[in-house]
Amino acid sequence: MKKLFTLTLAVMSFGVVCAQQDKGGISDDMLQQLRTEHVASQAEKAARNALAHNPIPELAANADNMAMIDTHFSHRVKTKGITDQQQSGRCWLFTGLNVLRAKMIDEQQLPSMEFSQNYLFFYDQLEKCNLFLQAVIDTRHLPMEDRQVEWLFKNPLSDGGQFTGVSNLIMKYGVVPSNVMPENYQSNNTTQIANLLKLKLREYGLALRAQKDRRAPIALKMEMLQEIYGMLVRAFGEPPVEFEWTRCDSDGNPVETKLYTPKSFYEEYFGGIDLEEDFVMVMNDPTREYYKVYEIEYDRHVYDGDNWVYLNLPIDEVKALAIASIKDNTAMYFSCDVGKFLDSKRGMLDIANFDYESLMGVEFPMNKEERVRTFASGSSHAMTLIAVDLDDEGNAKKWMVENSWGAESGYKGNLIMTDEWFEEYMFRVVVDKKYIPEATLRLLNQKPIMLPSWDPMFAPEM
């Protein structure tokens, strides 16, 4: 704090010595004072030399925190296998399917299991295209300069998303095993096809806005969706309407072969789980009032589906829900600001991983609320929360998530986070209602506070 106090005094005296210019620019006198008061110590010279030839994270790596963290966890969900989203923004989809995968492997005693991300992504893109086109029809009475219309045309399509996409898509289209509709180059590398789809959607959006007859846009939208469907089939393949699948025992021996539809497959293995009704997204957003429910306008994957709705809770209450779920062998959809203090080689998320303050000679004192308010932090990536390590009093010491960056990344495909990091950079987790106290569940009866679709905290998770 002494350094900050000294800096404050310097700024105050700076303002006295150098009168503010009328236009607010940097005057010659101001620049001269900056040069004069800058002290080039030996430590600063050494830091400058190092920075000239090396990446900042390598130089800021904290030598006092280089040892690998203990990888023992007191409570861990039973899981098998690691998935890889490759060069795509589908972490939200991989995360949701990984939650189901862990459950099916455990309950059916399977040697392995992976669901087709490509299958659901096809319908995700089709539904999002329809969402954009219908939203354009709904808002065509507004000028192009309107904030909502502007947002729509800036964001016609994304491969990112969040849990309501998982729940709405699965309950509408079911699931299929990965070998029924496997990944291909375009599903693993989504940028190029996304750019073409967005270009087409913007063209279509202008055409829909130009229609004067109230009935005309609906028929025109169907023609547009037919072309979009063709583009998606070329890129990802056509989704199956039925398929054969053989269930094997834990040793890999065939047990039963049956004919399924995607929805009947979901019903057989997850029939008791209603993803749209049985789960609640809880958030820790210190910039907004706790114990309130919030909804984000147009933040959904399916036009006739659900907007993103969440309950905002203090971090200790979020932890309690997560611990209860893990103790009962139930993995969770989890999202965070994964890029902050990530040591990707060790697979560790720890605020002590990097010492930027010593390297740069300044402090970075903002708390979580201040970082969110100033756009310095926000949820960027979804993963599957699978483990917690509790002390003798039941307090969390560290957590682990199953990632979707391949088995060679991080710690055996997972990331381990300290509890301190969890508090600072965790944002949301999706919890089965059975782990939520009745008093907390009753909070969901309140009318959600509607937030605009352009709110920066709610960018798609990639």
Short description:
With 462 residues, this protein is an alpha+beta fold. The chain has 17 helices and 14 strands.
Describe the structure.
With 462 residues, the chain is of the alpha+beta class. It folds into two domains: 114-270, Cathepsin B, Chain A; 279-458, Alpha-Beta Complex (Cathepsin B, Chain A). Helices cover 41% and strands 15% of the residues. The strands form two sheets. Strands 1, 4, 5, 6, 7, 8, 9, 10, 11, 12, 13 and 14 form a twelve-stranded mixed sheet that branches. Strand 10 (381-390) and strand 11 (396-402) form a beta hairpin. The longest helix has 22 residues, at 117-138.
Top keywords for this entry?
462 residues; globular; Cathepsin B, Chain A; 2 domains; alpha+beta
Number of domains: 2
What is the third-level CATH name, the topology of the largest domain?
Answer: Cathepsin B, Chain A
Shape: globular
CATH homologous superfamily caption of the largest domain? Cysteine proteinases
Q: What's the level 1 CATH class of the largest domain?
A: Alpha Beta
Work out the strand percent. 15-25%
By oligomeric state, this entry counts as single chain
Main sheet characteristics: 12 strands, mixed
Class by SSE composition:
alpha+beta
Number of helices: 17
Unreliable sequence segments: 1-14
CA distance, first residue to last residue: 37 Å
Topology:
Elements: H1 2-17, H2 28-37, H3 42-51, H4 56-60, E1 75-76, H5 91-108, H6 117-138, H7 147-154, H8 163-173, H9 185-188, H10 191-209, H11 216-236, E2 243-248, E3 254-260, H12 262-270, E4 279-283, E5 293-296, E6 308-312, H13 315-327, E7 332-336, E8 342-343, E9 348-349, H14 356-360, H15 368-373, E10 381-390, E11 396-402, E12 414-418, H16 419-425, E13 426-432, H17 438-441, E14 449-451
Parallel strand pairs: 4-6, 5-14, 9-12
Antiparallel strand pairs: 1-10, 2-3, 4-13, 5-6, 7-10, 7-13, 8-9, 10-11, 11-12
